[in-house]
Amino acid sequence: MLIKNLSKLVAVAALVSSSQAIAWGQNGHRIVGELAEQHLTATTEQALTPLLEGESLAQISTWADEMRSDSSKFWSKTSSKWHYINVSDADNMHQHVHHNISSKEQVKNILDGIYYGINTLKSDSTSIDEKRFALRFLVHLVGDSHQPFHAGRAADHGGNKIDVTFFGDKTNLHSTWDTRLIENERLSYTEFTNFIKTSNSAIIEDYLNSEPADWLLESHHISEKIYNLNETDISYGYIYKYMPTVKTRLQQGGIRLAGLLNQIFDKKAQPLKEALKTSKTAD
């Protein structure tokens, strides 16, 4: 019994450790999902009900990371490339968009993954299980696209190979932005969401006047500024400087996720007010 319990503890520890290196972290993704729910139209909420199976967007937001402990080839080998994009010509990010992605095998990066999710959810020929998979992944990837180092440099694996200290603890740059900056606020995801939520129509319009390639280009430019400053001893000054950026990216992620879902599920949703601007995303 002791060995069995120890094995369970080791497995849980491994999962927690790996999750810090691959996404916003659990609270970051839940914040994006929780905030998005506050901006869904009633029509979209109704359409999502059978896909969510009693869960919330916050609850399903971490699924794509949690499943990476599954031993199947897709989750252990293939799915990792869905979470990020590394491009040498980031200012031409829109040239890397493939709007017609319709199968998992076509997905080469996070942009492909987002359009796979959009197309699967809009298709009349995909099954309910395929739509549930697509929704869970899409919610996660919209969050990932707003974490700067998911559009970072390939050479250092999006900051994973850049060693830093966080109040003296050894970690890496990617994990700092995924998890530690958010967790340092000592807030639950619902508390954090309440602190950054907004009903300011000008801010919402600005955020929704965008499409997925824009989000990743923004992330790339933020990561480049952080790379260039090469700050490795992270403490109060770093947090003061960058927490406004973290909060803005989470706020943008939540509102844009809602805008994308409204665009997919509610034909009457108003672009720039409730839904993303009318663009090729809607094709």
Automatic annotation (TrEMBL):
MF-aspect GO terms: endonuclease activity; hydrolase activity, acting on ester bonds; metal ion binding; nucleic acid binding
CDD domains the UniProt entry points to: S1-P1_nuclease
UniProt xrefs under InterPro entries: PLipase_C/P1_nuclease_dom_sf, S1/P1nuclease
Signal peptide (UniProt feature, chain positions): 1-23
UniProt keyword annotations, A-Z: Disulfide bond, Endonuclease, Glycoprotein, Hydrolase, Metal-binding, Nuclease, Signal
Protein name, UniProt field: S1/P1 Nuclease
One BP annotation, GO: DNA catabolic process
Organism encoding this protein: Pseudoalteromonas amylolytica
Gene3D superfamilies hit by this protein: P1 Nuclease
